[in-house]
UniProtKB/TrEMBL annotation:
Protein name as it appears in the record: Early nodulin-like protein 7
Molecular function GO labels: electron transfer activity
Keywords attached to this entry: Disulfide bond, Glycoprotein, Membrane, Signal, Transmembrane, Transmembrane helix
Superkingdom field: Eukaryota
Residue ranges crossing the lipid bilayer per the database entry: 153-177
GO cellular component, one term: plasma membrane
Signal peptide per UniProt: 1-26
Annotated Phytocyanin domain residues: 30-128
Lineage start: Eukaryota, Viridiplantae, Streptophyta, Embryophyta, Tracheophyta
Pfam families from the UniProt entry: Cu_bind_like
């Protein structure tokens, strides 16, 4: 009987871990929309300021929306000089999604060097995946709402109840065999 208990505990633990991991995955992957255009003379730091207010993580994506223009991924030197010297990735379909699939800096410029010099360029720093312990920020609500405790208790109870319903016949069968 002891070994059956041990197997059951392992099984429940593995299921619970996989459930926890999939809920963490679902929490990441934010899409940031970028209105991609030449900034006015007054706002040449437009994209710098836009990026300062955001936090980008691996798994997020940027969606560039633009007309009659292009978006090109470049390196740091090319970004600061608005001069493309390497063959790089780019698109000009007007609606371009870039997946931020690694941590570190990403540099984007308009394929038109004049647009780039006028400030149509974006540099971002992508942070590693969310640490597992960090829970997503809870929106602060003024209205009395169901407490977050009760909803998270519900979330963790349902799978466990479900799992024990699944497992009890297995234990019964194994117990009968032993
Ligand atoms: C620059 O912005 C200010 C305030 O936003 C505005 O009053 C001014 O007309 C703008 N100047 C130009 C050249 O666009
Ligand atoms: C598109 O861009 C090209 C080159 O910058 C320019 O000659 C053309 O007039 C633009 N077309 C529109 C519809 O803005
Ligand atoms: C871009 O950089 C390369 C390498 O430094 C240089 O030879 C070229 O003249 C530059 N092009 C422009 C348009 O500045
Ligand atoms: C751009 O593409 C996304 C899907 O990748 C779509 O949801 C969105 O509606 C598109 N926007 C435009 C303006 O076509």
């Amino acid at each position: 009987m002891a070994s059956i208990k041990f197997i059951t505990i392992c099984f429940v633990t593995a299921l619970f871990i996989s459930l926890t991991i999939s809920s963490v995955d679902a929490a990441s992957g934010e899409e940031f929309k970028v209105g991609w255009r030449q900034p006015g003379v007054n706002e040449t730091d437009l994209y710098h300021h836009w990026a300062l207010k955001k936090k980008f993580h691996v798994g997020d994506s940027l969606r560039f929306e633009y007309k009659n223009d292009s978006v090109i991924v470049v390196d740091k030197w090319e970004f600061y000089h608005c001069n493309r010297t390497h063959p790089t990735w780019g698109a000009k379909d007007g609606n371009t999604t870039v997946n931020l699939n690694r941590a570190g800096p990403f540099y984007f410029v308009s394929g038109d060097p004049e647009h780039c010099k006028n400030g149509q360029r974006l540099a971002i720093e992508v942070l590693p995946l969310y640490p597992i312990s960090q829970s997503p920020p809870q929106p602060i609500s003024m209205a009395p709402a169901p407490s977050p405790l009760s909803s998270s208790a519900l979330v963790s109870t349902i799978p466990l109840t479900f799992i024990s319903v699944l497992i009890s016949p297995i234990v019964a069968v194994l117990g009968g065999l032993a």
